[in-house]
Amino acid sequence: MSLYGMMRTGVSGMNAQANRLSTVADNIANSDTTGYKRSSVEFSTMLLPTSGGAYNSGGVNTVVRTSIASQGALQYTTSGSDLAIKGDGFFVVRVPATQGMSTDQTNYLTRAGSFVLDASGRLVNAAGYQLMGYKIGGSDVLEAITIPSEPREPQASTLGRLAGNLPSNADVGYTSKSSILIYTVDGTPKMLDIHFSKTGDGEWDVSVEDESGATLGSGTLGFDVAGKLVSGGSIDLDPLVSVPDFTLDLSKFTQFGSGFSITDLGANGNTDSAIDSIQIGKDGTIFAQYTDGSTAALYKIALADVASPDRLTALAGNVYVESPDSGPVIFGSANDKGFGSLVSGALESSNVDIAEELTNMISAQRSYTANSKVFQTGAELMDILVNLKR
Predict the structure, then answer these.
(1) Nearest to 130 by CA among 100, 163, 90, 94
(2) What pLDDT digit, counting tens, does each position of 319-373 carry?
(3) S-S: 249 plus which of 94, 161, 171, 182, CB 3.0-4.6 Å?
(4) Structure letter (DSSP) for residue 96
(5) Vertex 16, ends 45 and 7: CA angle to 5°?
(6) Distance, CA of 76 to CA of 359 (rounded, Å)
């Protein structure tokens, strides 16, 4: 064994413990960082071949590992745009576009879900990354989730639905009524009354009237002895200036022995109204709650995952990118196979345990001191060797 080798081994040990202390420092500094994943150092020996009974000291090598797959505890908040993933998966984020142009189209992965709306209506987290998703009714291309600030334009109703049961034991001449709300071309709400009148065994006349009592359309429904609809099923309203084209779907009606009931009704179309708030479902669907009380689905939040999350490459901003050892990125949505569910109004805490980090700090400090003593002893022996010549 050479004294130089002994000193190099001591330096190797000090460098290894310095790396360990660096990860401990990062972990403690980010113990309150949303979605942060702790780093640790794994040691491996570096051995040199020995010959002739002489031992050649080697050293120690370090590999930094990040516990990305380990989930932190959920902390609930009062903000509906705060998001946490319960289970596997990552949010897909990108660098926000500057002046309408984005120079970085890289899909980054993160568990940091502290999103807020910026001036452009984009959902941006604390590191400045914008949340990506799929627009409802659009293409399957990832795009930045942007909540519109301007009121939506009015849309005339074109299709309505009404479902329920007509009593099979009712006498001929029995009548009943229900109502449905539709919208005109300028967004004005209009109430329509639907009248049902039994004309025979399994036969019903249906008429649609406006608020003044004028008939806008009519039709018939026919049922078999089992109460299943066999004829009719829809009514087209006479074209109006305010409602140019509207069809009422009645195909879900039945005729059973129970009384008259309505199980489902509604119509498309809307008035002009602004977004009052947004709501996010467990499957990642973002709904807009409008001032008129209606809701509409806007986006589906995209999630991503890899085969080996702990092998992802960590970057500044608490984001990760694909590496050769992590496997390719797979895209999906919350509650899909292999992906967890979304929790709105919650954030994932750091998975750092302060007590464990302080213990590691003390251990690394003592090991560093011991390695420095090895180096110091080697230096003192080297001085003795040099002084032999004097």
Answers:
(1) 94
(2) 999 999 999 999 999 999 889 999 999 999 999 999 999 999 999 999 999 989 9
(3) 161
(4) P
(5) 80
(6) 29
**Helix, strand and coil in the chain, % to nearest 5:** 15, 40, 45
Please, what is the angle between helix 3-29 and helix 354-387, to 10°? 160
Q: Give the other-Cβ count within 10 Å of 56's Cβ.
A: 13
Q: Give the β-pairing of 313-315 and 319-321.
A: antiparallel
Is pLDDT at 49 greater than 50 in this prediction?
A: yes
Beta carbons of 7 and 378 less than 8 angstroms apart: yes
If we measure between CA atoms, which residue out of 75, 93, 67 comes closest to residue 343? 75
What distances in angstroms separate CA 314 from CA 39, 277, 328, one per listed residue? 10, 34, 15
pTM, two decimal places: 0.75
Kindly indicate the confidence band of residue 10, based on its pLDDT and cuts at 50, 70 and 90.
Answer: confident
Mean pLDDT for the stretch of residues 264-284: 90
Residue 318 CA, chain-centre distance (Å), reads: 16
* Distance between CA atoms of residues 201 and 348, nearest Å: 62
- Whether the CB-CB separation of 60 and 46 falls below 8 Å is answered with yes
* Residues near 374 by beta carbon (within 8 Å), at least 6 away in sequence: 6, 7, 9, 10, 13
